[in-house]
Amino acid sequence: MVQRGRRTAKVSGDERQDTILITAEALLAERAFDDISIEELARGAGISRPTFYFYFGSKDEVLLALLDRVITEVEHRVGDLPRDFESDPAAAWTRSIGMFVEVFAAHRGVSTAAIAARARNEEVRALWSKSMQSWVDFSSDVIRSEQARGAAPEGVDAHDLAVSLNLMNERVITAVLDAESPAIAETSALHVLSTIWIRSIYGSDNPGRR
Amino acid sequence: MVQRGRRTAKVSGDERQDTILITAEALLAERAFDDISIEELARGAGISRPTFYFYFGSKDEVLLALLDRVITEVEHRVGDLPRDFESDPAAAWTRSIGMFVEVFAAHRGVSTAAIAARARNEEVRALWSKSMQSWVDFSSDVIRSEQARGAAPEGVDAHDLAVSLNLMNERVITAVLDAESPAIAETSALHVLSTIWIRSIYGSDNPGRR
DNA sequence: TGACAGCGTCAACACGGCGTCGAAAAGTGG
DNA sequence: CCACTTTTCGACGCCGTGTTGACGCTGTCA
Q1: Which CATH number fits domain A11-59: 3.30.460.80, 1.10.10.60, 3.40.50.2300, 1.20.1380.10?
Q2: Which residues in chain A (140-169) have CB-CB distances under 8 A to chain B?
Q3: Mutation site for A-interface testing, chosen from B196, B197, B198, B202 by largest number of A Cβ within 10 Å
Q4: I need a surface site. Which of A9, A13, A144, B195 has the fewest CB within 10 A?
Q5: What is the pLDDT of residues B19-46, one digit of tens each?
Q6: Is residue A40 pLDDT above 50, yes or no?
Q7: DSSP secondary structure code for residue A207 in this structure
Q8: CATH assignment of B59-202?
Q9: Are B105 and B177 a contacting pair, CB within 8 Å?
């Protein structure tokens, strides 16, 4: 959890801080981050602009806190996932990818704003990068062990493959959520993504079950 | 730049405009777009800020012009590429992808700034989207014909596959150019990307030559 | 040749959002 | 009810954007 702004913890203060976050997420659902002013965030939380600075040091800090929540949710759900890559690889990968799609779709405003904010903000970049790193580590560990047991062919470095596939997911999911053009339908995204993962990891559509 | 001879107003204007573009690309090589002010662009071109507005309506318009040049270069080079997908599919895809990597690497400042600016600017988004569309069209045409001749398996919609792979390239290339973390080494990017393309299009590392 | 059109130029202004400061108000403990 | 801390905000200064009105230069033509 990222603690910023207020130093001491007071209940009413925490409520205010929460109200700001709720206001921000609500506004992000309908408007781009850049088009939201601190004034609006403050008004939405029933305070004045200078008072906003009592709770957060900047607009970016609000986004950072919001992103932190989303990432925590992902981590939580990653932990709950069954890891039966050996018995049914295709299903296991598809479930993982599907989980990401679900969580990011549920917080599309925050996700797309945060991803865009990486370019500008060091802390957002660091936080995103840290999570990305842990997903990449997870994927490349699995890929490596699939290669070791002979289920997946060598020929590409597991780490490089994992990075590329994770970056693809990030990009395709944001394109879908923002309904970019060209993009793909939200309904077919999961199928395409998991097909690409499976084909490029196993070199086949039906990796051997065990 | 002193004005003399029978130069018409238009020519000197074009030169000024060009100077602004050159200044912008130079600054973009060392600094983020947001950290460059119109004042700097103007000074770099030897004019005052208001005069800048005579040539461009906004900073974004400068970026748009720069992006346009890069895209034109890509289109030009796409046209020069041999299209021997039937005789050596792997080499043909690798060459195409390599060309993108090269051009974007040669203009990394512009590329990354433009991609970031999509979120904010409608025209940048439209221009990028148009090019992306044409690359996607090209890729999906080839994929479809590879599927038709039996070289590539069905199982995924060619268009969806093409979109996802192109988006992956965009994301991986920008990650590499910005030396993001996690990312992959610039030297291995081409190999990983083309492996993923080939495996996910053909379901194998060595698609049949003809 | 001189007067005039209009182009390129810029000083100065208006505006809007950000961040800060200091002081007032509200809350808390003795 | 006083002293002290927490919370709040009015008012200010700053910065970057975009606009406006006027000035000089240059090419043109009566």
Answers
A1: 1.10.10.60
A2: 153, 155-157, 159-161, 163-168
A3: B196
A4: A9
A5: 999 999 999 999 999 999 999 999 999 9
A6: yes
A7: P
A8: 1.10.357.10
A9: yes
